[in-house]
């Protein structure tokens, strides 16, 4: 993998101090303009037009699903190379992607070259990154997103050769945070409601479980038997595909089946 070049003696692109200041100003202008945008493709193109001056030619804004899930249904905006996302999901890259794994470990923005490859997944992790490079994404930069409920998302930018001095890096970080908000807002209207996976009673039981109540306590609160509570918990686990109540609660919260 290549490395992101930092500010040095050159005077090209974002490396120039004056160009860096210009980028920051343009980023602020774009952030101010997000409020007036209603078309997600407009958000996507405007972000891409700005960051391409640093060498980024591709980017995506996506929620981060569980390892067993596909990435594609969670993508809000994407200018990834044609065929990459379908290939990525088809061969199961998401589970082994070292960049994705790093997003769960930090709230700080990071270059792909700063990512540690876990030994147990090293061959698959290298395959993910090598194939990304083959698709024109040799280097990249990520802005992890963590909302108030703790759910993860990421703004990921990539290209063949990137120039990004520290000040511009901070500007891209700021831009990524606001771009996520704009993507979430503008795509909300076009996303089709998926409907509820869990029944009303299953959501009731999980909501009380999320507050730390035992099966016996939930049974008393809802006026049903403990066996019925456990049946609802089991059915919720089967529907969501989880192994225990704690995991089911976490997934139900993430999927907005329940709220606290």
UniProtKB/TrEMBL annotation:
Keywords: DNA-binding, Transcription, Transcription regulation
Domain HTH luxR-type: 191-256
One GO process term, biological-process aspect: regulation of DNA-templated transcription
CDD domains: LuxR_C_like (cd06170)
SMART domains: HTH_LUXR
A molecular function (GO) term: DNA binding
InterPro entries per the UniProt record, alphabetical: Sig_transdc_resp-reg_C-effctor (IPR016032), TF_LuxR_autoind-bd_dom (IPR005143), TF_LuxR_autoind-bd_dom_sf (IPR036693), Tscrpt_reg_LuxR_C (IPR000792), WH-like_DNA-bd_sf (IPR036388)
Entry-linked SUPFAM superfamilies: C-terminal effector domain of the bipartite response regulators, Pheromone-binding domain of LuxR-like quorum-sensing transcription factors
Designated name of the protein: HTH luxR-type domain-containing protein
């Amino acid at each position: 993998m290549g490395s992101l070049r930092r500010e040095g003696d050159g005077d090209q692109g974002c490396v120039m101090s004056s160009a860096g200041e210009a980028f920051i100003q343009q980023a602020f202008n774009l952030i101010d303009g997000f409020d007036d945008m209603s078309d997600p493709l407009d958000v996507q193109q405007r972000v891409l037009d700005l960051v391409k001056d640093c060498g980024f030619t591709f980017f995506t804004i996506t929620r981060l699903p569980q390892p067993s899930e596909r990435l594609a249904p969670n993508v809000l905006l994407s200018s990834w190379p044609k065929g990459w996302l379908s290939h990525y999901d088809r061969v199961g890259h998401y589970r082994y992607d070292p960049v994705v794994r790093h997003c769960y470990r930090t709230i700080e923005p990071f270059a792909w070259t700063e990512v540690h490859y876990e030994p147990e997944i090293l061959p698959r992790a290298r395959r993910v990154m090598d194939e990304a490079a083959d698709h024109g994404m040799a280097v990249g930069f990520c802005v992890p997103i963590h909302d108030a409920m703790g759910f993860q998302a990421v703004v990921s930018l990539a290209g063949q050769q990137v120039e990004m001095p520290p000040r511009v890096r901070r500007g891209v970080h700021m831009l990524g945070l606001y771009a996520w908000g704009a993507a979430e807002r503008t795509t909300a209207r076009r996303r089709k409601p998926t409907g509820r996976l869990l029944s009303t009673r299953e959501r009731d039981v999980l909501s009380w479980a999320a507050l730390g109540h035992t099966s016996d306590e939930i049974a008393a609160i809802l006026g049903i038997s403990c066996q019925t509570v456990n049946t609802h918990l089991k059915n919720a686990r089967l529907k969501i595909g989880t192994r225990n109540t704690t995991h089911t609660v976490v997934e139900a919260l993430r999927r907005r089946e329940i709220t606290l």
